Amino acid sequence: MPERFDAVVVGAGLAGLYMLHRLRGMGLSVRVYEAGSDVGGTWYWNRYPGARCDVESLAYSYSFSDELQQQWEWTDRYPPQPEILRYINHVADRFDLRRDIRFERRVESARFNEAECLWEVRSDKGDHARAPFCIMATGCLSTPFEPDLPGLEDFAGGVYRTNLWPHENVRFEGRRVGIFGTGSTGIQAIPVIAREAAHLTVFQRTANYSIPAVNGPLDPAFVRAFKARYAEHREHQRLGLSMGAGDLEAAARDMKPMLPTAEKVTQAEVNRVCEAYWSRGGAHFMGAIGDVMSNEASNRRVADFVRTRIRAIVRDPETAETLCPTTHPIGTKRICVDTDYYATYNRPNVSLINLRKTPVESIEPQGVRLANRLVELDDLVLATGFDAMTGALLRMDIRGSHGRKLSQAWRDGPRTYLGLMVPGFPNLFTVTGPGSPSVLSNMVVSIEQHVEFIAGILEHMRERGYQSIRANPQAEADWTAEVAKRANATLYSKGGSWYLGANVEGKPRMFMPYVGGVGAYRSTCESVAANGYRGFNFRRDAPAATHAGASGS
Ligand code: N01
To answer: Rounded distance, CA 386 to CA 437, Å?
Structure first.
């Protein structure tokens, strides 16, 4: 027997939990389905050694409850995964969220029942929920990407995927470990595994730019001063051009890019400015030069600075050269933030294989077969990333009006209105979907904004007696064009990154996140709302009825 709710939410990570809290606050009945055995989303699955957020603790947290933000104590400048997971569990308990969540349920299908204006949501465990609204809080980086490594299933040792890391403690003492992947995840895991393993071999396909985190315990006096002005800091995150993240001390002092461009000054001047940001640490480094993401000459100079730093840290010149990124402009693949990443290659128990020179032929039971030799290994770690942004949505069978599949609607890439809705899929929302700032921003800032916007829409509908909301196809087309225009004005398209779907063979190449900044995006959403939710069509009757409902508001 199907169960009936006002809304079904898929996912119990930071997005799903806040969505549940907001909807419940509106008096709605909600069912949340979560594939994991507990809350946490990305922070539940990604338990690999060294996992840590690269947005600062005091920013990477909910702002919706002042009591919560005042009372929760973060330990480090950048929060480690176990601490974030504790925080999320605390939130779930504090707001009594678990009672509406069904764990270990992977949603397999969501189908719109046109006649009754309901979503029919089914899980792999046989659950069947019906609700007028369905909200996908499925995360942007939640579907692991399985690399093409022939023979992997024959490997005799342990195979550990960073994004499906076992809950029990994995020990690498005395073991020869190999790792694939030098993105944000690999760069965090490599220094930690290297300290434990007998030997670590890094199989690098693409060298990446990484900035030292300069992590450390938070100074209590700094935290006190920061919390005294939390509201101001939150406002800065919401409206700032810093994508809602950045260096909090700098934000506190309203630090602007120190040079508008690197093009017309000497490299020495560029180095001086970059050095100031490098020594402060973190992804805020990308704010040192104003036009780094739009001017190739500026970008090259910043990249040159990073390569100089790599050569200064890594003692073996050949290893240093292999680690110097040359395949893409800095920032066009997500900038990495590390602790001791480059210095790890000075350890005698770490070796680096350049897969562009010696590709993998196959994985054999004893290790990795390269063109010139076999690297014998006891364990393999795969830090090979995700089918980002669309993966989690497309692996469900989502069907909207007239049974149209989402996979069909997105055959040429994800097209949305504001990253929130897809035409033809009434009453279905995506939290931080493609076409919104999402992965280019502090995710918690973007999650809160989307959840509050969706809650606002539902309130608007309730007040006016509307039953359905649909994104207008023209609004979707205009917004998709705007997202592309913004991206094309930057260097992002030159990165060949997962932002473009480039890491997954056969995935349509389309720059998915909105690069215009969280402030501009928020103003757009506010203006849409103030104009009766421009671009959305509302109806009072069930959509199958012949009478055309109100349009706009
Ligand atoms: O994944 P990635 P990730 N053989 O796609 C390599 C967020 N995050 O998990 O570049 C050999 O960036 C691949 O090589 P290449 C953050 O947004 C945040 O590291 O395709 N190598 C690449 O090196 C981040 O951007 C935090 O040539 C293969 C790597 O695997 C996003 O998650 C921490 C291969 C994949 O890198 C994803 O990061 C961690 C093959 N067959 C992650 N296939 C925070 O701190 C793939 N690779 C918040």
So the answer is: 18
